[in-house]
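Morning F.,

Quick status update on the modeling queue. The single chain you submitted on Monday has been processed. Sequence for confirmation:
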Amino acid sequence: MITIKLALIVSNILFSSQGTRANRRYIHAGVQYQPSQITVCCFAGGVVLEGSENRWQENQLLAALPEKERSRLIPQLEILTLFAKETLYEAADELNYVYFPLDCIVVLISSVESKATVEVGLIGNEGLVGAPILMGAKHSTNQALILTEGKALRLPAAAIRKEAKRSSRMREIILNYANALMAQSAQLAACHRYHTPQARLARLLLMIDDRMQSPELRVTQDLLASLLGTRRATVTEAARQIQNSQLIQSVRGRIRLLDRKGLEKAACSCYAIISSQQLETKARPEIS
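Structure tokens below.
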């Protein structure tokens, strides 16, 4: 039997985002193949498990864990396909899972009003979403939004708490990353207060590019405006100025970097600071 996963169709839209990933309902479709016919049976349930035995190598934190500790986590990992603009957590949601991105990018967003938002963190395969769980947090303080689609490994919060208590090395690796993420958030707070929209947009594009496995970013200017905490018209003008300098190519929600070195010069100093902090705290594989 071949098992596939489909999100429930809401208002005739496949993968419609009704609630967060944590409370989304799914349909499991079991397909029995015979030469003469195909029988499909569907039933409601949780998340379909795909093969995740080797995919953990694509996440730097999981790869850095001691083999003994990692071997206890692997059977509990679920591999998910996450879609752009899907929400893992909303602010104040209960933290029931942590997510280890493989090739997707997650952006942490803080808001003070329904339409007043700003980015406070960017997470790729160098880290995990939900690190505050190991510092005693039970609820999310930010929205965690999928910026670029891809796959991630999901682990129950109870499982990572249990293993972190058993292993001081595992606790050290994850808390070290959590500290770097907090430093990133602090730097972004200063960035949004003191730097120009053009410099901040260049910095954001570089940070995304560092975590992407594709040469082209698909993102709307409306979303960029919400991440930078500014008006869409401001982002449009900033993107136009950067494009006129032949640093990027931006066409209908698709952005391609043409001159990365030039973009680094156009970016504010926060990019270099955040990159340096990330390099210093980068998790490295355990040597057996």
